[in-house]
């Protein structure tokens, strides 16, 4: 062997030892022929304790029966690839402790025949970091769930206080205003209840919210629950909470107005509530086949607090509100969700 070849082999040997990943070379019989310094550190053995031993010495006993067949398959391959793709792999240290690993296998041709160069990554630190992140996310989810639960409970307390005040009031107009405020608070409470019951605390399932809100609204107006039918179409619509709350309040106001003013003299009818979401574009529609809105009524200057709220909430959403006064009466709100929604 020439002096240059000897120098090259020494250089490659030094590089092999200093590479900052654990590396082990295994022959056709499954015996370890070489390992670098990091492999010694990773598994807790000195080099002379492993050379000549089968590689199964570094694998938990439960895998010993299957590993020789896998090893023969590795030797038959000619391409580098990950070992056990999609499976959790474990290494076994000298002290008997197991640790998660990721292994890349590289068939190599040597003067002693084909061998397998294994590159082993100790995933212990990564797994611990992932667990810390997972625990932190779980704690965050628990905190968010608790926040929504407490907000809902506080709103329900306010709802009950208004109910007591309404019962004590002898002025029907004042009692009616208190009932309207109750309904608004109930709408906000239901948003938080929907999030509390959800697996996704960032977005509100609007179908579930409407299914809870609208039957309660009709019940609040007594006999109307038997003469007015409400149909809901909100399939696959979920909104961020910043958009869900104003949308929920708008539905509350417009459905309440329809129930109060759209069906006089025990008139039967239907209220349709629909919402669609196309990418970040949302369209909310509330319509009814009851009494039309008079043409001489200025809806921008009306004394109704409910309609004033609808206009204010529309501006808050940076949306546009289209109004059809009759046949059917329809309010259509369209707005764009934020870029991060």
Word description of this protein:
The protein is of the alpha+beta class and 341 residues long. It has 3 domains: 3-122, PAS domain (Beta-Lactamase, 2-Layer Sandwich), CATH 3.30.450.20; 125-201; 204-341, 2-Layer Sandwich (Heat Shock Protein 90). 47% of the residues lie in helices and 24% in strands. It is built from 10 helices and 13 strands. Strand 12 (320-324) and strand 13 (329-336) form a beta hairpin.
Gist of the model:
Helix content is 47%, strand content 24%. By secondary structure, it is α+β, with helices and mostly antiparallel strands.
What characteristics describe this protein?
Heat Shock Protein 90; alpha+beta; elongated; 341 residues; 3 domains
Main sheet overview: 6 strands, antiparallel
Helix run count: 10
The secondary-structure class comes to: alpha+beta
What is the third-level CATH name, the topology of the largest domain?
A: Heat Shock Protein 90
Instruction: Characterize the overall form.
Output: elongated
CATH architecture of the largest domain: 2-Layer Sandwich
Q: What's the domain count?
A: 3
Please give the radius of gyration in angstroms. 35 Å
